Amino acid sequence: MGKQRVLSGVQPTGNLHLGNYLGAIRNWVEIQEQYENFFCVVDLHAITVPHNPATLAADSYTIAALYLACGIDLKYSNIFIQSHVSAHSELAWLLNCITPLNWLQDMIQFKEKALKQGENVGAGLLIYPVLMAADILLYQADKVPVGEDQKQHLELTRDIVNRFNHQFAKDTPVLKLPDPLIRKEGARVMSLTDGTRKMSKSDPSELSRINLLDPPDQIANKIKRCKTDPVRGLTFDDPERPECNNLLTLYMLLSSKTKEEVAAECQDMGWGQFKPLFTETAINALKPIQEKYQQIMDDKGYLESVLRDGREKAEAIANQTLRDVKAALGYSMPL
Q1: Is 198 a known active-site residue?
Q2: Above pLDDT 70, what percent of the chain?
């Protein structure tokens, strides 16, 4: 028996922040030796909302370089850009045609984002969970590292698998049922300006997030200005103090201390004492990532070779799955 396979990805929309790192990428790094991994830059997903064509390609390379800088190891993992493997788009279309419309209309993220976009909402925003399903199913992934906010989309993926196999591959299932991998701590990193909202690249305020490539002075400024409360003594899990819980959790994850250690260390602290401690910890945690990122970006040929090799390995698996799906649906094969 070979290793189980993992598939995940991040959109190339702006700089990655602590939420992306602690909620996803660090988890990938920690588990990668256990699995055969495919980590893609999901640039097809990036255009489901208004985007900047002038920066999309450069942003895609930035995300790929950050994967490597954060510790993704090519001995265990493949890195590629989603749109470079055309099977993603083709399988998404095929699966769209068998996915009931009401399943997509029930997606919470669609409702939230459609509300923000108003009349400008595109059809891609409605059907992108099917593209996400195609991303996963092309590689017959066993596990999918996801944040809590993506769990509903993985459930949709499982529903699509069951529907497809029942209708078109009853005797010999074509698509594999994936399971979620959800990190307990840090699965949902919250905004620095509102501890009840998720840290997000789409938040218009830069003060809401610490980006992985922020220089030390910006990190210090953001932590200095982040939302807190007037209570002395810092504690986890108080529903009346969401910002306190979020900042302690970030400090715990970046310092690699246990929850018990942080609770004991910070129980008598005020914010004036905690913020400098958190600032130093965040800067020190991000420094090696930033240094490695710069080395990678200074060697464009290396990054291109990583993405080329990743695409070739991804295509070999994805194209076989696509052929099997098309055969089950009754398509003729190219001569």
Answers
A1: yes
A2: 94
